[in-house]
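Review box. Two proteins, two foldings.
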Amino acid sequence: MATFRKRNGKWNVQIRKKSAQGSISGTFDTKSEARLWAATIEAGLEHGQSPFIGHHPTSKPNGVLLKELFAKYREEVLPKHKGWKSELATLKVVDRRLGNIRPRRPQRNGLGAL
C-alpha cells in the first residue's frame, strides 16, 4: 500500500508490503509522477521483482553506468551540501576511475543475507 505525503513542495511516496523487507520510498515533483512510480513498484513487487537498481521503470534494461548515477547525484544532491566543492573534487576522481562500471544487484548468500 502506498502512502503519499507532500513535504516542502515535493511528493513523498512510501510503499509497505508484507512481501518486501521494510519499506520503499521515493520523492517526486508532482503527485502524478509519484502515483505512476508507486503503481509500477507495487506491480513489480506483486510479480516478485526487486526495486533495486535496474528495476526502476525509467532505467535502461541492462542497468546504468556509475558515471550516469554520479552525474545525477552531482546535479540533484550535491548543490544542497554545505561542503559541495570538496565533495565535487572527490566525485570527479571516483568518476574517472569507476565511471564505466555497471553496478550489479547484490546477490543473497545461502543464509538469506546480502
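Next protein.
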Amino acid sequence: MTFALIGIAIPNVNAAKLRQIPIPLPPLPEQRRIVEEIERRLSGADMIEKTIGQSLKQAGRLRQSILKKAFEGKLLPQNPSDEPAEKLLERIREEKAKMQANRKTSGKINRRWKK
C-alpha cells in the first residue's frame, strides 16, 4: 500500500487528486452574511435552551408545591361528610393488624395439614 492510499476508501483517489477538484465558494460578502445568519440562529437557539431550562425548573417547583398542598389537604376543599384523616388512618391500622393476625393463624392451620 502506498502513502497516498492511506485513509482513502476509494482506490486511485488521493489528496493530490482531491486538491485538483474546484470547490466553488460564494463571494466574501456572502460568506460573511452566512456566518452572521448562523450566529443569529445559534443565539436564538441558546435563548430557547435557556427558556426551556427555566421552564423545567418552574415546573419542578410547581409540582412540589402541588404535592405539598395535596398532602396538607389544601388542594381541594374538605367534604364535611368525609371522616377525618386521623380516624381513617386508625381504621386502616386496625384492618392491617387483623389481616396480619389472620395470616399468622392461617399459616399455622396450613402447617398442621401438611403433617
